[in-house]
Write a structure and sequence with these properties.
With 202 residues, this protein is of the alpha/beta class. Helices cover 48% and strands 12% of the residues. The longest helix is centred in the last third of the chain and has 15 residues.
Amino acid sequence: MDQDILIIHQHRLMLDMLEMGLKKQLPQLNIATQLSIDTAQTTQETKLVLIDIEQLNKVSFRNIGPLVNRHPRARIVVLGSHARPEVLLARGVHTVIDLNHSLDDTVKRVESILAGRGSGLMVCKEFEQSSSSIFDCLSERERLVLRELCCGQKSVNIATKLDISPQTVHSYVSRICTKLNVETRQESVFLGMRHFEALQAM
């Protein structure tokens, strides 16, 4: 069966969030997912391949060529930050979306690409600060809750682990969303996953 969008991302939680966000916005499209570029199957009719930059960094972008050949009619969209994103564009990538955009912004950009609009770089200038500084506004406890959410833990599990009530966890999540200037728990996890190394180091 033909697929409209193929998402390749090594983190299952991020993969699921991208899939859910796209299905909510574009329910008419057929979306396939996989955890590794190595398991990519040949599908001539894929319209768009959304791939995590870490899948490409492992081989210094040498696998972009085979990916483009495998999906000759697809637009390749790379999710992630790189010092020289123009190198990716020169190798056949349609769009590079950096790590600082919300889930909603990313979904909207994918929607516009499928409609034939938008290519090149999607870089968020207002987030040029370091990854760690994004979470400076959070208390130590809030960062701990966000880390647990990024690891796929549910509120009841976090409550048990921290010896607090599930309602207190919900209060922490609400404050996290306010401080990170996002509207939903899902978006806070999306941001946390994109900068997880920095979050884990704090």
